[in-house]
Specification:
single chain; mainly alpha; Helicase, Ruva Protein, domain 3; Cyclin A, domain 1; 0% strand; Rab_GAP_TBC_domain
Length: 503
């Protein structure tokens, strides 16, 4: 966790347009010595007097939201195996997305390893591509003066975002400053949307896992229209719950607004939030609908549970204080995966509700764009050329170094009897002074997995007889990672790329 250099919190814009939360406020100034003294305390939770409190594995002070409920502990050996598999996918992302998307989806349902979650979210959401296609865009927005009508509103919301997380516990700490920068930049990037309170928790969750350049997160949608879609789907999933809500005349906005606009970040235990987001980034908005339907089904889907819901107030309270069992990580994920609600059903219901809306209320004031259902749809919708997402390997070996798990350099194949005779005849006639060197193709074939076949450009004839080891590409360790599980288990999680500092 980065150390905080701010202690006064975000300030009102100065006359010259300097804003709190920008790079200027984070840079060392005249009081750098005092700031360094404060930063030596470590995390923002320590700087704010919470050093004696215990922090859970998610960064929350024990006893707050992140520590609620029983956590599903993955055995260390299983976790290491998953990390190895995810490293292979991330290092060959475009190939996996094109040919093995179903496997990516299954692994997202099992849960992305915590050490790789931030990097995986960038790839799944398309944020990595956008970042590469727009170099310096965030810096440009960060250094620009924001719209004054949004700045005060954003500053008032900063302390409300996960106040018991070590990243945001300190007023004016690095977490709140980065959050301000991201939200301000988004109002400049999408001025037609501006700022709404639901953007802050979305951006805060993303900041816990990746650098400030990657957020902002998803924008606002026609939440009322989504409410009608959810309510109609509920009739198929749980007729009992649908009938009760209809009889009580409870508008979906009363219980699902925070669910959808915050992607359940303020509703579920933190372990469940992360698992839902893993699936959401991979499969798209259908996961948000499925989670809402599962919560409604298990909270109101049986006569026994409706005994305590005689009126609107009691029903709303039932949905605001959901049973911990319903929200428990393993139970919730299993229910969401098995719920028979497809993308096609959601799209069909979207068109039906949009038509009804236009018939009864006229045209929507906000644009309701077609939904991109997850990582594959985002990849297919990306216009124009896109850079290949293939980061450098974490381990670099010289061309002639043996690969992990191998027993030294690959040996050339033995010469056949015919080749030996041809060599003897050539030597007897004085044409050769030394045995012939086997061709590069034969050496590669003998090496097996240690050197996969590659397109090698033709060489200068003068160098045809040189040793083939010099022609091995420098990234052979990277190609080898596709086939060697042993190599995966040895691979370091630390990369030379800046993105991997947030793993």
């Amino acid at each position: 966790m980065a150390k905080s250099r701010g202690e006064n919190g975000p300030r009102a814009p100065a006359a010259e347009g300097s804003l709190s939360g920008t790079r200027e406020s984070l840079a060392p100034g005249p009081d750098a010595a005092a700031a360094d003294e404060l930063s030596s305390l470590g995390s923002d939770s320590e700087a704010n007097g919470f050093a004696e409190r215990r922090i859970d594995k998610f960064g929350f002070i024990v006893g707050s939201q992140g520590a609620e409920g029983a956590l599903e502990e993955v055995p260390l050996e299983v976790l290491r195996q998953r990390e190895s598999k995810w490293l292979d996918m991330l290092n060959n992302w475009d190939k996996w997305m094109a040919k093995k998307h179903k496997k990516i989806r299954l692994r997202c349902q099992k849960g992305i390893p915590p050490s790789l979650r931030g990097r995986a979210w960038q790839y799944l959401s398309g944020g990595k591509v956008k970042l590469q296609q727009n170099p310096g865009k965030f810096d440009e927005l960060d250094m620009s003066p924001g719209d004054p009508k949004w700045l005060d509103v954003i500053e008032r919301d900063l302390h409300r975002q996960f106040p018991f997380h070590e990243m945001f516990v300190s007023r004016g700490g690095h977490g709140q400053q980065d959050l301000f920068r991201v939200l301000k930049a988004y109002t400049l990037y999408r001025p037609e949307e501006g700022y709404c309170q639901a953007q802050a928790p979305i951006a805060a969750v993303l900041l816990m896992h990746m650098p400030a350049e990657v957020p902002p997160g998803p924008g606002r949608e026609a939440i009322q229209l989504d409410g009608e879609i959810l309510f109609s789907l509920l009739q198929k999933v749980s007729p009992v719950a649908h009938k009760h809500l209809s009889r009580q005349k409870i508008d979906p906005l009363l219980y699902m607004t925070e669910w959808f606009m915050c992607a359940f970040a303020r509703t579920l235990p933190w372990s469940s939030v992360l698992r839902v987001w893993d699936m959401f980034f991979c499969e798209g908005v259908k996961i948000i609908f499925r989670v809402g339907l599962v919560l409604l089904k298990h909270a109101l889907g049986s006569p026994d549970k409706l005994k305590a819901c005689q009126g609107q107030y009691e029903t709303i309270e039932q949905l605001r204080s959901l049973s911990p069992k319903i929200m428990q990580e393993a139970f919730l994920v299993q229910e969401v995966v098995e719920l028979p609600v497809t993308e096609r059903q959601i799209e069909r219901e979207h068109l039906i509700q949009l038509r009804r809306w236009q018939e009864t209320r006229g045209e929507l004031q906000c644009c309701s764009p077609p939904r991109l259902h997850g990582a594959k749809a985002i990849l297919e919708a990306e216009p124009g050329p896109r850079p290949t997402l293939q980061p450098s390997p974490s381990i670099r070996l010289p061309p002639d170094a043996p690969l992990p798990g191998s027993k030294g350099k690959p040996k050339p194949p033995k010469q056949s009897q015919k080749e030996k005779e041809q060599w003897k005849q050539a030597k007897a006639s004085g044409q050769l002074d030394k045995p012939p060197v086997p061709s590069q193709a034969k050496v590669a074939a003998a090496a097996g997995d240690a050197c996969p076949p590659q397109d090698v450009p033709p060489k200068d004839p003068a160098h045809q007889d040189s040793a083939p080891q010099d022609s091995a590409p420098q990234d052979s360790a990277h190609h080898h990672s596709q086939d060697s599980a042993h190599h995966h288990s040895q691979e370091s999680l630390t990369s030379q790329e800046s993105e991997d500092t947030y793993l």
